[in-house]
Task: structure prediction
Amino acid sequence: MATTAAAPKFQPVNTDGSYGESGFWSWMTTVDHKRIGTLYLYTALFFFIVGGIEAGIMRWQLALPNSHVVSAQMYNQLFTMHGTTMVFLAIMPLSAAFFNYLIPLQIGARDVAFPRLNAFSYWVYLLGGLFISIPILFKTAPDAGWFGYAPLTTPQFSGGLNIDFWVIGLQILGISSLAAAFNFITTIINLRAPGMTLMRMPMFTWMSFVVQFLLILAFPAITIALVFLLFDRFFGTQFYEIASGADPLLWQHLFWVFGHPEVYILILPAFGLVSEILPTFSKKPLFGYNVMVYSGIMIGVLGFGVWAHHMFAVGMGAVADSIFSLVTMLIGIPTGVKIFNWIATMWAGEIRFTAAMKFAIGLIALFTIGGISGVMHSSPPADTQQTDTYFVVAHFHYVLFGGSIMGILGGIYYYFPKMTGRYMSEKLGTWHFWLTFIAMNLTFFPMHFSGLLGMPRRVYTYDAGQGWEKFNLASSLGTALLIFATSLFVINFLWSRKNGAKAPNDAWGAATLEWSIPSPPPDYNFAQIPIVTSRSPLWDLKHPEMTAGIAHSSPDAMTITDSHAVPMHEETEYKTAKELGIPMPFPTIKPFFAALGIIVMFSGLIFIHLDKFAIAMAITIGGAVLLVGSLYAWLTSPLE
Amino acid sequence: MSDHHAPGAAAAQEEHEEHEHPSWKQYKWVALILLVITVVEVWVYYTPFAKSPYFNPFLITMSAVKFGIVVQMYMHLKYDHKLFRALFFGPLLIAMFTVTALLFLFHQLPPLF
Amino acid sequence: MATAVTHEAHEAHDTHEHVHYTSTGLDNRKVAIWAFIGSECMLFASLISTYLIYKGRSRVGPLPHEIWTSPSGQIFQPILNIPVTSASTFVLLMSSLVMVLALAAVENRGKPGYVGTLLGNSKFWLAATALMGATFLGFQAYEFTSFVHEGLTIKTNLFGSSFFTLTGFHGAHVTAGVLWLLTLLAIDIKRGLTPKDAILVDICALYWHFVDVVWIAIFTLVYLIK
Result:
């Protein structure tokens, strides 16, 4: 460690000698939640760009009527992969990057509950993501929309390999999400620092907690729907065969039982991030913390009772329509509560308009627009007019881009100093924000009009003279600007890693635990686990005069006499895990091989449709052996 | 899931370790009850009662009782931390709600109105 | 995903000398297995819903509770064999009793009444549970093959597709449980399970009982209800 004197003070060194310093192998074998979070972040940003390019090609095609940049078949693949990529490979994993990086830091833990399972989740995600993404390079990508409605996806109507890749790929990605969710549920329940009661947890951790339950309850439904489709396609079952009496709505119901909670899986982490950013830059505690928690839980629970509002057009009858319509309107209430609480948090605050803060405020504005058009959809008569038009496309891009992506970008600006020890450029960040904000509205706002004028979704081109030209041109120009803005972000991100201004522990003057440790955090996170006595422990420590009037800290926590916990403090000294005697989990490659086994096992199925049954069996059995072998090797070796 | 577990963690642990699972005597009775209910269910299947409109509700009630007994006794939820109860019954409720809603939507249950 | 999570649960068995602090005082693995079981509720709810939705919608036979005459005049009897399935249900129900005795044997190792008695013989109870699970699987294999002989495969009709998928999923869960039990048995034989290891048996038992309660639901909803 003699060299550390010359290095920056808080270099993320791998201290016990068991890690390679920063080489390829150290990343392949890492079980550190921060490194896994970083892997998620880079991979998900890569897929975000891939999904953006797919969108760019589609908008290029639609900029003018009757243009033929790509064929109809290619266009089908593009919109399917754009949706699938953005939902499963970009936004969910971007949230997962924050779950990984932040949850243990925010609750005062040294790692997640099952570090190796965490690595496994990442590798399954990466390999599954490549599995589903690569076919587009060979023009055999999935082409039935991101919700892959059966019977369209049954062998009768989609004979090629395209849908096979989609069915198998989503099945694989589900394994990753579920494994991660069990891990985070256990982590949040069990690894909180002394005094970190549930109602003292930072709002991001709370929203993540709700999301993990949505994950474990929503994913089984799509898993089963996909199993049926897989069996129909590979083993000749009849689940979606209308000629055998199957119901054409079965898939839709099962898919949306998953699909609607999925919407909240995408948005709640962004809500959590915004709830961290706003108090810091308003210098005020979050307004109505308890109500924010309850409304988050309420959104999660009600989210399971609204799925059929995606299906008003199928004609479920007046009773079903009314019930789902009412619950959908009801869910607007807790969401609205959140919006008002954020505004009240900023009210009379000492606001600093950093890039992160701008994105957070951007979310409030843009998500509200998406929320309002969402409530419009909750009325079946209106919805039947809007179904499958660009109006719906406008709506969900306001909530997903204006909501999730704005929140996540804000989160990246906000937590970049914690992850790297350096600030991102505020100047470029401000340009990025304003260009994104303008471009986003230029792209998606006109879609409301083209939709109301009757332009359907998923058409690869259109005739002139229907009043859609100028709106489509505007959307396409907006997309071009959006791509430019995003490239500014990428440049900023990559440049600032090495050249940004140095950031201290507490980069922004925030209130929560993650800011009390060095930036970037050492591998063990907390040299001494702090005793938490309030919701804003760091403000209590640094600005007791500010929080003195708030009746939020209870004396019971002061009586904790846990041998390894010490009163709340800031950690400024850097020591290695070895010097501190903290046992660290061993790095291991086994989770990677277990994940590889799963991918190989599922890949074998593809060969059934290539009529190479023997090869299919060999690959599947080989994969299964690799999976089981790695699992046993993993479970019989000690963690630390 | 309440707040006071975290500070009192050590105490909670002791409390948890101390409680006794039901004994062999109880387990035996539980098994017997499960057995009797199953025998009754199968027996009823062969009686004229099987044609009654109350047959299905009766069977569902019986299996719900069995379900509850196994979960409470064998899975010792009755004696365990209330957190586990929340982790199980919360998802179970949502799952049962979903099944019921789907059966109404596909007209496998008579319409409400 | 089942294997990933349930096996992760084993991982600390070699490292139990570091007893980790947890905020609730509960074991990580037990929290995880309960979350996993919660998720499994939804998995089987989706399968059972589909079975019930497709009840009575098959266009051709054989059918579960009804006689079916094919267009060519061949007569198919109701296919479900209640006596045989009642027997297998009995075996699975009793395996839950044996499972709790295995857990009790490990938890109470060394206590009066458990030393040198059958009640304290965890190897016997673990082996018995695994054997009963295997017996259940044997019944299921018999049932599946006899259905195929009578003309019902997974491809035949909606009933066949949803029946074989639902019960097959349950069977796969039983299989995973049997492998898990055998792994525990191997550990017990190799180094002996002590009260400290009770958590390993406990989480396996929770999984096993859950698979049992799923069968309770399936037996009523698939086999008995008309």
In short: Residues 2-224 of chain C form a domain with the Four Helix Bundle (Hemerythrin (Met), subunit A) fold (CATH 1.20.120.80). Chain C has a mean pLDDT of 89. The beta strands of chain C are 68-69, 75-76.
